[in-house]
Design goal:
- The protein is of the alpha+beta class.
- Helices cover about 50% and strands about 10% of the residues.
- It is built from nine helices and four strands.
- It has a four-stranded mixed beta sheet, covered by helices on one side.
Length: about 220
């Protein structure tokens, strides 16, 4: 497929957690795409997005004259088009569990989203630590530990991700990794024995993740 076949419309890399998810999945899968950036939190943001996507939200994937909205739908589309890139586990049961974990992130953890919004190049240790947000974080730490112990760590050639190699599930939780770092959440206090911390390190050290963070820094510098 040609490099120009896919165009991904995204928001600010510092803030747009939903944009990060398909961007990271596509980069990890080695799928070439063009990138259109819409600046968020501006008076004309909604108008600018509507000119590119009928949903009025980012991200949006433009492909073959159509627009696919929603992070998970975009990730599923790329996984379907490029099955050889293994964006889902091959084993049917592991794949079902990975989809369940991705869907839980997609539809849940509202308090964490509200109280600890993504800000990948900012640091607010101690802020946003409401009881509700920490309850969400505790569930996520438990989920990461369980998936790493039952699936990732048991996979031949384990690369430190939830199911051994990078999958859509990791793309869905990548913004949470940045949140826990930005707000200085104590993982041990939430029941981590080191598995969740090592998982965070695996995500944060991905070259594509580093590129996203560098992009966020470049965007901020261009505005100063």
């Amino acid at each position: 497929m040609a490099a120009s076949e896919f165009t991904l419309v995204i928001g600010d890399k510092n803030w747009s957690s939903w944009s990060l998810r398909p961007w990271l999945a596509m980069r990890q899968a080695g799928v070439p795409f063009e990138e259109i950036h819409v600046r968020l939190r501006q008076p004309d943001t909604k108008t600018d997005i509507l000119a590119l996507s009928p949903t009025g939200f980012v991200p949006a994937l433009k492909w073959r004259g159509e627009t696919i909205g929603d992070s998970l739908a975009i990730c599923e589309t790329i996984a379907d088009l490029f099955p050889e890139r293994k964006l889902w586990p091959r084993d049917p049961l592991a794949r079902a569990i990975a989809r369940s974990a991705a869907a839980e992130m997609h539809s849940g953890f509202g308090a964490l989203r509200r109280d600890m919004p993504m800000a990948v190049i900012e640091h607010y240790p101690g802020q946003g630590h409401t009881d509700e947000a920490l309850a969400d974080a505790r569930r996520i730490v438990q989920l990461w530990r369980d998936l790493r112990w039952r699936h990732g760590g048991q996979t031949p050639g384990d690369q430190g991700f939830l199911f051994g190699h990078f999958t859509v599930a990791d793309a869905m939780y990548a913004p949470v990794v940045t949140r826990l770092q930005t707000y200085g959440v104590d993982l041990a206090a939430l029941g981590d024995d080191g598995l969740a911390r090592s998982y965070m390190e695996a995500v944060l050290t991905l070259p594509a993740m580093r590129d996203w963070i560098a992009g966020a820094e470049a965007e901020e510098k261009s505005r100063s």
